[in-house]
Design brief:
Elements: E1 2-4, H1 6-10, H2 18-24, H3 30-44, H4 53-60, H5 64-76, E2 80-83, E3 86-89, H6 104-117, H7 125-138, H8 142-156, H9 162-174, H10 180-203, H11 211-223, H12 228-236, H13 242-256, H14 261-285, H15 293-305, H16 310-322, H17 328-340, H18 346-356, H19 360-370, H20 378-390, H21 395-405, H22 411-424, H23 430-454, H24 461-464
Parallel strand pairs: 1-3
Antiparallel strand pairs: 2-3
Length: 475
């Protein structure tokens, strides 16, 4: 069971003091830090009955030996106390670390050489103890540790921190490099990469390469199989983020199979084009997205792969905006309709749009006469095209019918009924329509309305289409 000491509880329950972060955390193994923090949260949950080491092992996916080693580690530093099954957290303010005795003669030469390399400051006993503890825990030869200290000083300068040296030593030891000869060979290999990496780091802002950067460089060369000239080129394209951003880009290029400057350049140019097109499409339909990458993957790239010209896509986006279709899914449906019709070039698309909108001015006039407000709808376009092209109605006759429909519940549908009735009677001009008189026109409209409801079976579908336009779900 985990619990807080009275002093630790007074310090602020589960808060982690700056002293722990600054003086203890940097030196500790990552798993040990996880155990400390998760155990601290368990100690604060007084009503939680399952605050056991077994639970901590399950939650952190650690074996019990590692957890016990972590508790022993923090106990040695005076931050925990174990009594049976109880582990008590102690205050960092009153911590009394256990000073472990090491063989002074065994590490005397290491102490001397380490101090020679780090000559700008005095290495304190506590720091030496951290080195000793790591060497004994990981079975790292002191001669190997001396090489690591020198390597870190060469990388970072004499002000290199103890946590940095410990991290490098821990990485090497955990990778199996524990003897003087093994570490020397490994660091010599890093030295070869170091010289090439200096030029790369210069492009990234001029910082000196550190151990992590050298490890990344080795990965790019050995694992990713990039030529060093390609790495140097990509580095020149990085504006901010340093080695981490460069690693992100090279990983993406590796995944995409791009291993030459030419292929990478072509890819980036295409990407710029796709981003520009996506933003233009969004602007055309009145949408905005912070990140257009998902849009490119789901819509832009597939449309281009279907053979659409960029101008065709933008023309369809403008069309959607005019028809109040503001979603990418709406635009996608329109694009696929055009693809099914074999219209993929800008000229084809614009001819289709112009053809569809060719009566918009006349339709607007009819809407004004009939007292209809709003934008021109596709249904209105279909009806007007039917009146003009199939029923052969004169423009003036259509406008006359619109005047008769003013004040009706559905003026456009009323106009359609009148014109359908006139067509049956052979009336196509304003002169013949007026000759029939208003009363007869009203009667014709009523008769046409009844006709639609009673004589459907007397006409074929094509015949009905001559004077009846079915409204879409939208309208």
């Amino acid at each position: 069971m985990f619990k807080l000491s009275p002093e630790a509880a007074l310090d602020g329950s589960v808060s982690v003091e700056n002293k722990f972060i600054v003086e203890y955390l940097p030196y500790a193994d990552g798993d040990y830090v996880k155990v400390y923090l998760y155990g601290l949260s368990l100690a604060a949950r007084k009503a939680d009955g399952d605050d056991t080491i077994e639970r901590l092992c399950r939650r952190l996916d650690l074996d019990e030996a590692t957890v016990n080693a972590a508790i022993d580690y923090w106990s040695d530093r005076g931050l925990m106390a174990r009594l049976g099954d109880e582990v008590t957290y102690l205050s960092t303010r009153t911590a009394r670390p256990k000073i472990k005795k090491y063989d002074v003669d065994k590490y005397a030469e290491f102490n001397r050489q380490a101090q020679l390399y780090i000559s700008s400051r005095q290495i304190l006993p506590a720091e030496y103890n951290e080195y000793y503890a790591l060497m004994e825990k990981l079975e790292l030869e002191w001669q190997a540790m001396t090489l690591i200290v020198k390597y870190c000083v060469d990388l970072k300068g004499e002000n290199v921190s103890c946590p940095y040296i410990l991290a490098v030593a821990r990485n090497l030891a955990e990778d199996g490099y524990r003897t003087h000869d093994a570490v020397a060979d490994r660091l010599e290999e890093f030295g070869v990469y170091y010289n090439d990496l200096c030029a790369v780091m210069s492009s990234l802002g001029g910082k000196r390469p550190d151990h992590e950067a050298v490890q990344l460089y080795k990965k790019w060369i050995k694992v990713y199989k990039f030529d060093k000239s390609v790495i140097a080129f990509v580095a020149t394209t990085i504006k901010r983020g340093g080695a981490a951003t460069l690693d992100y880009k090279l990983t993406a290029y590796r995944d995409a199979g791009l291993f030459t400057v030419e292929k990478i350049t072509a890819y980036e140019e295409e990407r710029k084009t796709l981003i520009s097109l996506a933003k233009s499409v969004n602007k055309a339909i009145g949408a905005y997205y912070d990140n257009v990458e998902p849009e490119i993957a789901q819509y832009i790239k597939p449309w281009l792969d279907m053979g659409f010209e960029q101008g065709a896509i933008l023309a369809l986006a403008e069309y959607c905006m005019k028809n109040n279709l503001r979603l990418l899914a709406d635009l996608d449906a329109v694009v696929r309709d055009c693809f099914a019709a074999g219209l993929t070039t800008e000229s084809d698309v614009r001819r289709k749009v112009e053809s569809e909108n060719r009566y918009d001015g006349d339709i607007s006039a009819v809407m004004k006469i009939a007292g209809i407000k709003g934008a021109v709808k596709n249904t209105y376009r279909a009806l007007y095209a039917n009146w003009t092209e199939k029923l052969k109605m004169e423009k003036a006759a259509i406008e006359y019918a619109a005047a008769l429909s003013e004040g009706k519940d559905n003026p456009f549908a009323y106009v359609n009924r009148i014109l359908a009735a006139w067509s049956e009677a052979g009336i196509t001009t304003l002169e013949t329509a007026k000759a029939e008189g208003t009363a007869k026109s009203e009667a014709a409209a009523t008769a046409a309305s009844k006709l639609r409801a009673t004589v459907i079976e007397r006409y074929t579908a094509d015949e009905l289409d001559e004077f009846v336009i079915h409204l879409t779900d939208e309208d």
